[in-house]
Each structure stands twice: as structure tokens, then as C-alpha cells.
Write a structure and sequence with these properties.
The protein is mainly α. It has 15 helices and 7 strands. Helix 11 crosses helix 13. The C terminus is likely disordered.
Length: about 450
């Protein structure tokens, strides 16, 4: 490899490793600076903003923080989504500039990005572990590394040839089930978002009261708004758990469509979407995951002509939903400092099992009943073919040996000049027809 090519590849790897780190940290620091400047009672210092940004960067990568002796593990997911998108885009651009077309050539990009995040996480953990904030360096290493590795893999999947290799080598039925499973997971999250939106729309007055009571100035109001926006994906996942049946808990508060126990709540405007008492119509919300399962079955009805193949596609979709839900719900919950609101538990394990059941049971029934029936199709086709065929005869005559009645052509001369005895016009005598081989025909003697 020429030195120019080696140096160009090295620059691409350096940009891929450092780009998301610098951009992500700068975005967190800018956000903290804006909130600090807008707050009326806060003192803005560059060192204070940069130190706070280290904890913010770690929190954006889901690293648990210890604040005043209490663990904060239920961290907002919106900054994490932003970090994932940033890493995925960086990895995709890196493999494009490198001209990578095979999966084995794309893994170095993933490894470099994940390793850089691990090193940065350890350094920022050591810097943040001063005063009232404490961070485990080991957690600071593997949480950012895992998130960066997953995001980079998703970024290089298409341009790095990973998705193409999966499509060409995977079972077509399983691949369809994989795609339908992702669609089902998105539909379930949309159902959770619908519930959260409905709760906020019906509690607009409570939202205004919480803003006015906990945010006396514009800076505090901005901070509450950003905090609520950051926890919005967590709320959507909690809404999905509520719609699916298991529900969730926050301290002594327990919310579910079949059971409800009240409890204290923090003064976050986003939490105004939570109900104050149980409503009798909540069990009707179970129709939403039931409908998603039926949709999965309807989409799987044509993936395979055999019913067992369609059931296999439904099972793959259920596995995708179960794995995705347990990962997301586990990330959305966690400790809340050991206070009266601790912990936030979305019951991730139970949620994954219940969602898998919502996919398998109605989806399997619809895929089995709505899809084609190969046995019946073949049987009806054979019957129609048999009715269209003329009955076959041995030696060109009837099977029972009875003589056939002479037709008008046999009795007289046909259009070609053949007489009844089968003599041609030129005097040649063709072989007797099969119908005249019967012993009752006079010419057979």
C-alpha cells in the first residue's frame, strides 16, 4: 500500500474515532452553558460548565452516576438516541470514504469507534469523580463502548456489505420475519406514544401548574422543558408497558391497565400524563397490542405457502419484539437516587414475554388461517384437471370391449373420398381403425 493511501486511511480512522466524541461533548457543553446563562440564580463559569458536561456526556451514554451517595441509573434516553445517530452516521461515512464493500473490512471501523468511546468514558469517569458526583470507571468504559459498537454496526450495515451478506445468506422466511418484527416493535412504541400524548393532552392544566410552581424564571423553565424532553422516550416506553399489560412502577406508584396504586411523583411536567386514579375502560387498551399481533400475522400470511413456514416467520418477529423491548425497557428504567421515587421499573423481563405472546398468539392464528392452503389447492387443481381430460381408452377403443356405433363417416364416404371399408382414393388400404378390430365387425373376418 502506498504511503499516501496509508496516511489517508489513518486520517479516516482518526476522524471516525474522535468525531463523535468531540461533537457529542461540545453539544452537551453548549446545552449546559445555555441553561446556566438562562438561569437567574446560577453562576456561569467555563470550568463548571465543562465539568458538568463530562457527567452529561456519561449520562447520555447511560453510565450510572452517583450523586450525593444516591445512584441515578434511570437516565434520559433522548441524548442517547442523538449519540447513536451521530456514531452511526460517522461510521457510515468512514466506510464510504474507505471504499469498504465486504463486512470483514468494515469491522475495523466499528472496533476503532468502540475503543475510542471506551477510553473516553474511562477518562471522563475519572474527571467526573470529584466532589458529590461519583462514576465507576469500569461502567464508564463498557456502557459507551457497547452503545458505540451497536450504533457503528448499524451505520456500516448497508454500505459495508453486512446487510447484503445477511440478505443473500439468510433464510428468506426468517428475513421477512425479521423485517416484520421491527415493524411490529415500531407499532407498539407508537401505541405507547399515543397513550402519552393522550395523557398530556388531557392534563394540559396540570402541566402549566407544574411549570409555574417549579420554574419561577425562564432559565428554570427551560431546564424543566429540556429535562422533560430528554425523558420523553422513557415515557413512551412506559406507555408501551402500560398498553401491553405489565405496566410500570415508580417508587410506591404502580400503574397498569388491570391494577393501579397511587404514590408520590416528582414535579416534572412530563409526569402530568400519569393518571390520578384507575379508569374502568383501561382494559380496552389491550386491543392495541392484540391488533399489532394480528397485523404481524396478516403480513406473514404470504411469506410461505406452508402454514409451518408462516408460523416460523411469526416466531422470528416475536423474538425481535421481545429482544428489542427488553433492551429498551431495561435502558429506560433504573435507580432514582434512593428517594421516594426510587426505582423506576418498567418490568423489562415480563414486558418482553408478554409482548412476545401478543405477537405469537394472534399473529400465529391469523397467519395460519389467512394464508394459502397448499393441500386444498393441489386437490382442487387435480380434480379440475381430471374433469378436463377425455377418458383414455386402450388400443383406441372403449375399455369394456363393446363395439362402437358407426358414424356417418364410417357408413359412407368421407370428405377425403374414403369409403366405408377404409380404402383411400388412390387404392392404398390403410390399417383398419382400432374400432373395427372387434369381432362383430364383418371386415375382421
Amino acid at each position: 500500500m502506498p504511503p499516501e493511501s496509508r496516511s489517508a486511511r489513518l486520517r479516516v480512522f482518526l476522524v471516525a474515532a474522535a468525531g463523535p466524541l468531540v461533537t457529542g461533548y461540545a453539544a452537551v457543553a453548549a446545552l449546559f452553558a445555555v441553561v446556566t446563562v438562562a438561569a437567574s440564580r446560577a453562576t456561569f463559569t467555563t470550568s463548571g460548565v465543562l465539568r458538568a458536561a463530562t457527567s452529561g456526556w456519561l449520562g447520555a451514554h447511560q453510565v450510572p452516576l452517583s450523586i450525593a451517595g444516591g445512584e441515578l441509573g434511570a437516565l434520559p434516553l433522548l441524548p442517547t438516541i442523538g449519540a447513536v445517530l451521530l456514531v452511526a452516521r460517522t461510521a457510515s461515512g468512514a466506510v464510504e470514504r474507505l471504499g469498504v464493500s465486504a463486512p470483514r473490512d468494515a469491522w475495523p471501523v466499528v472496533a476503532v469507534i468502540a475503543g475510542a468511546h471506551a477510553v473516553c468514558g474511562v477518562l471522563l469517569s475519572l474527571i467526573s469523580s470529584t466532589g458529590s458526583v461519583g462514576v465507576d470507571p469500569l461502567a464508564g468504559a463498557y456502557y459507551p463502548a457497547l452503545i458505540a459498537a451497536a450504533a457503528a454496526t448499524a451505520g456500516v450495515a448497508r454500505r459495508g456489505g453486512l446487510w447484503r451478506a445477511l440478505v443473500t445468506q439468510a433464510d428468506p422466511v426468517a428475513l421477512r420475519g425479521l423485517r416484520i418484527g421491527w415493524l411490529a416493535l415500531v407499532a407498539l412504541l407508537a401505541a405507547g406514544a399515543l397513550i402519552v400524548t393522550l395523557g398530556l393532552a388531557t392534563s394540559a392544566g396540570t402541566v402549566r401548574e407544574l411549570f409555574s410552581a417549579n420554574a419561577p424564571g425562564p432559565g428554570s423553565g427551560l431546564g424543566l422543558f429540556l429535562l422533560s424532553a430528554g425523558y420523553l422516550p422513557n415515557a413512551v416506553l412506559a406507555g408501551t408497558a402500560f398498553v401491553a399489560g405489565p405496566g410500570f412502577t415508580m417508587g410506591t406508584l404502580s400503574v397498569g391497565p388491570l391494577a393501579f396504586d397511587g404514590g408520590p411523583l416528582p414535579g416534572l411536567p412530563l409526569l402530568a400524563a400519569l393518571p390520578e386514579e384507575r379508569a374502568g375502560w383501561w382494559p380496552l387498551l389491550l386491543v392495541l397490542p392484540l391488533g399489532v399481533g394480528a397485523l404481524v400475522g396478516w403480513l406473514c400470511r404470504t411469506v410461505d405457502p406452508e402454514p409451518l413456514g408462516r408460523l416460523r416467520a411469526v416466531a422470528v418477529a416475536a423474538v425481535v419484539v421481545a429482544l428489542g423491548s427488553v433492551l429498551l425497557a431495561g435502558s429506560a428504567g433504573g435507580r432514582l437516587g434512593g428517594g421516594p421515587f426510587d426505582p423506576l421499573d418498567l418490568r423489562a423481563a415480563l414486558l418482553s414475554l408478554v409482548l412476545a405472546a401478543w405477537i405469537v398468539l394472534p399473529g400465529g392464528a391469523v397467519a395460519w388461517l389467512a394464508g394459502p392452503r397448499p393441500g386444498r389447492v393441489i386437490e382442487s387443481r387435480d380434480m379440475s384437471d381430471a374433469s378436463d381430460e377425455e377418458p383414455a381408452t386402450d388400443d383406441g377403443g372403449p375399455d369394456d370391449g363393446e363395439p362402437s356405433e358407426p358414424s356417418e363417416v364410417d357408413a359412407g364416404e368421407d370428405a377425403d373420398g374414403d369409403d366405408a371399408d377404409g380404402d383411400d382414393a388412390d387404392g392404398d388400404e390403410p390399417p383398419p381403425p382400432a374400432s373395427t378390430r372387434d369381432s362383430t365387425d364383418p371386415t375382421s373376418n
